[in-house]
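Re: Re: token formats

Sure, here are both.
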Amino acid sequence: MKLSNATLGSLPEGIKRPTYDRTALTPGIVHIGLGNFHRAHQAWYLHQLMQLGHAQDWAILGAGVRPYDAAMRDRLKAQDCLTTLIELDPKGQSAEVTGSMIDYIEIVEGNRPLIDAMTREEICIVALTVTEGGYYVTANGDFDEAHADILHDAANPDTPRTAFGAIVCALKARKDAGTGPFTLQSCDNLQGNGDILRQTVVGLARLSDRNLAAWIEESCTFPNSMVDCIVPATGAKEVALAKELGIDDAAPVTHENFRQWVIEDSFCAGRPEWELAGATFTDDVHVYEAMKIRILNAGHQVLANAAEILSLPTIASCMQDEDVSAFFAKVEAECIVPYVHPVPGMAPTEYADLIARRFANPMIHDTTRRVAFDGSSRHTGFLLPILRDAIAARGSIEGLSLVEALWARMCSGQREDGTVIEPNDPMWEALTEAAMKAKEDPAHWLEQHQIYGDLALHGSFSESFAKWLNMLWRDGTRATLNVYLAS
């Protein structure tokens, strides 16, 4: 059955669906970046609130800023912005249709429809999931004001290219009209994501209008948050799975049986009562996000590059592989967990055990390619801060050095079975060039200062990295992993 408002009442028995009147919903949130994660996470929490009879005036207007977002808009608009969520659990699967998003803003060059939507007085939150690498941050953590996109938006503030330029333009219109500010909420996997979003928005505004930048910094709020739910990419298999359940959904989402959302309660224009749907509000988001980013997100990178080299297709298959799963467990225990603080009700070792169980879920077809994507951002954001902490504490860095060597080996673009690894990073060409040079001299890899900064100057790391990379090329991945496991 083709998914739409008209067919909600006729969905197969057992499929949960909206019990609220979607025609009565009014928007309060613009969300930029309508990927699978947002639809399985933030939009789900809001849907649960609506099911309880709350938040009817907080519906989502979806948005994108790149031409490729238009395809998702077409798919979702054709089914009234409804989404089928399919929970995959070893004990069985279940499905529900969510309806908290009511429209998807037209995507045009210059982003005028998006700007106009954010200018509307009833919009109180602008949220983003634009990936970890989408915030124009340098390797040192500063705002990248020299980036071509940023230079364009600073010179053309009324016809911006980026989401942040559109936000600045809308806030200027609201300031001039006396409409007031809105909250800017990052939902990406970045430690201090709200602080990073503030840096980008205020930094961009300052390039064209310093008074506006000061008003944004003083009036808008940027709550930090931690988001957690494993959500694989959607392909033909997922579309077919929805059809097996009796739903013709062009963009269904599969997800695990776990969600967590920890949020700093800093909303200048109000917010939905997400806590009624299970979200946690706290003044100390940092410890939650540090635990998750270091153990889960960094853990993903521990697995993904070895898996790509060894042609292991999914994260679950990594956990079924004796060598790779043992490597994951040893790196987590010796190199990551020691640099994670506990959170209320959860010790780092307990969380690491939980992550291992979640990664091993055979129902979740989370590809190693998806997890390995954009390593230039994910290693910089997830792994290298732990490495710096380990160096400062004079702790073990062997496992993390091997993880970096595996990444360099993977970026050569060829698996050990001879198959080609297709480009999988915005910097892929430069990474491949550095990887091939590093095959002869490992120092070439660490000379990528936009990634490693001054880490190459730490002799213990550069020596360990060189040892492992040379071994990977000489002896192969499994032999190298086993040398590490025996150490």
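Second one below.
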Amino acid sequence: MKKTNETFFSKLGKAIVGKSTVDEEVLDELEEILITADVGVDTTLKVIKRIEERVARDKYLNTSELDVILREEIAGLLEENRSVDQETAFTLPEDKKPYVIMVVGVNGVGKTTTIGKLAHQFKAAGKSVVLGAADTFRAAAVDQLILWAERVDVPVISHGMHADPASVAFDTVKKAVDMHADVVIVDTAGRLHTKVNLMNELSKIKRVMQKFIPDAPHDVMLVLDGSTGQNAFVQAKEFTKATEITSLAITKLDGTAKGGVVIGISDQFKIPVKYIGVGEKVSDLQVFNRKAFVEALFQKK
């Protein structure tokens, strides 16, 4: 969050220099800062409105309090959209075995890498994992997942490029059931072809999984690249139209000034952010901790 923090605070400092109270000019500046940080227009307007209400209620608000109030409002938004217990993200429900995660997202966002890192984390937590290479449109996606499976030493089911994704998902879940695995992670849908095709493909994958596990998948995770800012919003919009998304993983937050996208996407789509990617190492996929995120965003140097 270093780049986001630096950009955010330098702009916020300039907005309030020489000001003693939070007036209309400061709020206009703040609106621009939040939008520039890719918080998104709708979420930005919501935050500004809440601050305006506090100014009206308290009658007087000085600029030194602004970052405290901002911190409280952003933390509040993230809390509203947290429907899972993030602190137990690698603890699985005992009545759902194997626990099936279907992962979606466009190519290039770090989807396959996220799956590899997830497999590593679950294995480190003592869980047995099976991967399914059902993103069969692009050979590199299949090959990359096989490499990750070898790296973290977990089994992977692959039928190669151009195979039927549903067939791969079927065999993956069957293998997991046969070996009494704890977790199944299936890589899917590496492209936004047409929404109809995407919807049909994901629906078919779900149907074949449900032949073995009636309530599968238990989690449909959308992976988004945090460094793309507004493009991540567009992708979230398209995928939520095509299928029900139950959690988000947002990658590449370590090298971008667009970290505000986490706040906007969580707020606009009402989907909890479960994981964030903050580096290349296998351990650099972290459970999203909203308190730590807000602290990092507002940390003064």
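Strands lie at 99-104, 129-133, 156-157, 183-187, 219-225, 247-251, 273-277, 285-287. The chain has a mean pLDDT of 85.
- S.
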